[in-house]
Amino acid sequence: MSIIARVFLEKSPFLKNFLKKYTGTEQDIDDIMQEVYLKAHRAEKKTKIEEPIAFLVQIAKNIARDELNKKARQATGFIEEHLEELKTEKTDSLESEQEAEESIRLYCQAIEQLPAQCQKIFLLRKVYGLKHKEIAKKLSVSLSTVEKNLKLAGLFCDEYLNNPANITPLNRQNAQTSPMRNQP
User: Fold this and answer.
1) Angle at which helices 94-112 and 52-81 pack, to 10 degrees?
2) Are 70 and 28 within 8 A, CB to CB?
3) Average pLDDT of 2-25?
4) What is the three-class DSSP state of 181?
5) How many CB atoms lie within 10 A of CB 99?
6) What domains, with CATH codes, occur in the chain?
7) 32 Cβ neighbours under 8 A, 6+ residues apart
């Protein structure tokens, strides 16, 4: 039995628990675990893996983040593709419908510019409907971090919707900063 296979079998419960903070369903976790093993096994055939546990965790983390980003893009894409279905009011004028479509498009653009952690927290709350405590537990962050990131995301999106030309993307290194305006 290869080292990766042995370590994978020994550390599977740990890896599954680790992945719970990135994804909620057992099916997603099982799919990611399968992909982790396949990637690690292929890599082991090409080169010697010095730290198999760290290697498996890094692969799992990368795949889970890719999946989370994919779901965020799917949510944004779904919103953009189904603008008509998402309208809450029937409008009589074409101008009002165009304004609603523009508003949703700008909202999606604003979400895409949020820092990674802020975007995850915001989407888990707004798209998946998780409570603050559930998000904190899932991402292994404090409740305060969740609340601050939700407030930051809300403020940024509001500002972006009101004046998208003067808003620069948030600093992706520091999700705790306030939205920044372009300086003339």
Assistant:
1) 170
2) no
3) 88
4) strand
5) 12
6) 3-67 (1.10.1740.10), 89-166 (1.10.10.10)
7) 19, 23, 60, 63, 64, 67
pLDDT at residue 177 in the model? 40
Nearest-angstrom CA–CA distance, 134 and 142: 11
Which one, of 113, 103, 122, lies nearest residue 161 by Cα?
103
Q: Residue 77: how many CA atoms within 13 Å on its side-chain side?
A: 6
Give dist(CA 22, CA 68) in Å, integer: 7
What is the token pair recorded at 174?
């520091």
What is the distance between the terminal CA atoms of the chain, rounded to a whole angstrom?
64
Give the predicted TM-score (pTM) of the model. 0.47
Q: What are phi and psi of 181, to 5 degrees?
A: -100, 150
